[in-house]
Amino acid sequence: GLAPMVDMPENELLKKVIKETYERNAVVGAVCHGPVSLLNVKLSNGTYLVNGKNITSFTDEEERGYAIADVPFLLETALTKQGAKFHAAAVWSDHSIADGNLVTGQNPASAKGVAEKMIVILESSKK
Fold first, then answer.
1. What's the rounded Cα separation, in Å, for the pair 93 and 114?
2. N or C end of the chain: smaller count of CB under 10 Å?
3. Cα dihedral sign, 7-11-13-16
4. Rounded to two decimals, what is the model's pTM?
5. Contact 83/51 with Cβ under 8 angstroms?
6. Beta-bridge partner residues of 28
7. What backbone torsions phi and psi does residue 42 show, to the nearest 5 degrees?
8. If DSSP codes are grouped into helix, strand and coil, which group holds residue 66?
């Protein structure tokens, strides 16, 4: 949904939980507009969590064809401004990326792929 675009970018508790989760090498995953929660998360070394990471989310192109009037900013643009290496597939197609313990999906069609990638990471960490 679109509510995260308003509620999540500046939520300090959420930023703290994501930072701590990521820094202890636990899996962090987000789909569609969910990667908005990764914005403004600064790691202990002062860099943005998304800086240099391969990431996807709802794309600017998808937003323009869906709900541009209802969002305060374009998520793809915001992620790239914080240094994310953004990867997009065709509009509304299944597309997910794992970069270390960070897993992201482009849109609702990507939820299953994100879950599957997270399971692989979790299972490999048990070995």
1. 13
2. C
3. positive
4. 0.94
5. yes
6. 102
7. -105, 130
8. coil
Q: Give the chain's length.
A: 127
- What does the pLDDT profile of the chain (127 residues) look like in tens digits? 678 899 899 999 999 999 999 999 999 999 999 999 999 999 999 999 999 999 999 999 999 988 887 889 999 999 999 999 999 999 999 999 999 999 999 999 999 999 999 999 999 988 7
**First-to-last CA distance in the chain?**
36
Q: Which two tokens stand for residue 99?
A: 């970069």
For residue 48, what is the DSSP state? B
Looking at residue 98, its amino acid is A
CATH homologous superfamily of 4-125: Class I glutamine amidotransferase (GATase) domain (3.40.50.880)
